[in-house]
From TrEMBL:
<dbReference type="InterPro" id="IPR036621">
    <property type="entry name" value="Anticodon-bd_dom_sf"/>
</dbReference>
<protein>
    <recommendedName>
        <fullName>Histidine--tRNA ligase</fullName>
        <ecNumber>6.1.1.21</ecNumber>
    </recommendedName>
</protein>
<dbReference type="GO" id="GO:0004821">
    <property type="term" value="F:histidine-tRNA ligase activity"/>
</dbReference>
<dbReference type="GO" id="GO:0005737">
    <property type="term" value="C:cytoplasm"/>
</dbReference>
<feature type="binding site">
    <location>
        <begin position="84"/>
        <end position="86"/>
    </location>
    <ligand>
        <name>L-histidine</name>
    </ligand>
</feature>
<dbReference type="InterPro" id="IPR045864">
    <property type="entry name" value="aa-tRNA-synth_II/BPL/LPL"/>
</dbReference>
<keyword id="KW-0648">Protein biosynthesis</keyword>
<dbReference type="GO" id="GO:0006427">
    <property type="term" value="P:histidyl-tRNA aminoacylation"/>
</dbReference>
<keyword id="KW-0067">ATP-binding</keyword>
<feature type="binding site">
    <location>
        <position position="260"/>
    </location>
    <ligand>
        <name>L-histidine</name>
    </ligand>
</feature>
<feature type="domain" description="Aminoacyl-transfer RNA synthetases class-II family profile">
    <location>
        <begin position="1"/>
        <end position="326"/>
    </location>
</feature>
<comment type="similarity">
    <text>Belongs to the class-II aminoacyl-tRNA synthetase family.</text>
</comment>
<dbReference type="InterPro" id="IPR015807">
    <property type="entry name" value="His-tRNA-ligase"/>
</dbReference>
<comment type="subunit">
    <text>Homodimer.</text>
</comment>
<keyword id="KW-0963">Cytoplasm</keyword>
<dbReference type="InterPro" id="IPR004516">
    <property type="entry name" value="HisRS/HisZ"/>
</dbReference>
<feature type="binding site">
    <location>
        <position position="115"/>
    </location>
    <ligand>
        <name>L-histidine</name>
    </ligand>
</feature>
Amino acid sequence: MSSGLYKALKGMKDIMPPDIHIWQDIEKKAREIFASYGYLEIRTPAVESTSVFIRSIGEDTDIVEKEMYTFQDKGGRSITLRPEGTASVVRCYVENNLHGLPSPQKFYYMGPMFRYERPQSGRFRQFYQIGVEAFGSSRPEIDAEVISMLAHLLSGIGLQELHFQVNSIGCEKCRPGFKEALLSFFEGSFDELCVDCRRRYSQNPLRILDCKVGRCIEIRKGAPSVLDHLCIDCRDHFQKLLELLEMLGIRYTVNPEMVRGLDYYTRTTFEVTSENLGAQNAVAAGGRYDRLVKEFGGPETPAIGFALGMERIVELLKMTLKYDLPAPEVFIAVIGERAGREGVRIVDDLRAGGVWAELGDWTSSLKSQMRRADRLSAGLVFVIGDDEIQSGHVKWKKLADAATGEVRISGIRDFIIEGKQA
């Protein structure tokens, strides 16, 4: 059967070696850093009731209107593949009464998200995110903690030349005044706005500031700044956050136009970008969503979080770092059937001790087995035949530098493990 008959769907891809090892390194580092900050893993379903996302993301957003994978299940219910992680975590938080835990409650997640949009560099229809959510604190210190944790993660995996942008988009007290100022500003240019922004004008004018259409970008130059319309509490919160970021040594830029594309954000918003990614340059983003838990039926609970896109992170790392495929620590080449059986016992013993060991095929020539060991970039090679079994000793060779030596067959496992610890 031709392999061309079956292909991955457009915008969805397989993740294979060597890339998968980069993914695993990122996930490992994320787990280590999140644990040091007291964040616990949470896993939510990839499929939710459609209302979960309409309620949280906003009915007039591009995600809900154009990009969600929404279906009718066999029970006639509208279900959706999750397009982002926060809504599912909030639903879980409320449904399972996690607000009863000591505050702040801090969680992280890893997994696939789904959006039906035009595939492009670093952007897919099935994509993966790592995200965190912290519930129960309205203090700017938790905002700084989340941003600092993100900075440590990105630097910990080797990313450089990143730009942190921060903003405050106010709260329910001060945002109405800012909306009125925006409506007044865009009123004279309404007909020149794109179709989406003309709709946003009446539904959510803040999202005009997030439009990527060139003409809309030009029109909004000189638009009112949200920072000029913050209430005293929001202004104080934002100023304290900036002071904390400076104290922590996190370099940032205040970007008053950054409003984020989801309706649930309040106060702090932030984004991390890279100049090496072209137009789609955001690698991570997040912010505060102090009303969302209550809107899901829970108690009034301030919250903040972020998500980073794995595909873009991997793309950046491949530009700057060299990744090699993992290689077996030991290769056992065997000559003859008796040595082949002894090789099975040895590699099984090594694997039980946590050593990656590969076994040659005794029906193949020694030259062929050594060629395979070389292609695998094995660390140590042992050659076992009848003479070695009779003497109880076997010679080893390091392929990297051609160093050689000898060890008892019964002591191979200890020899390898001691070498790893040296």
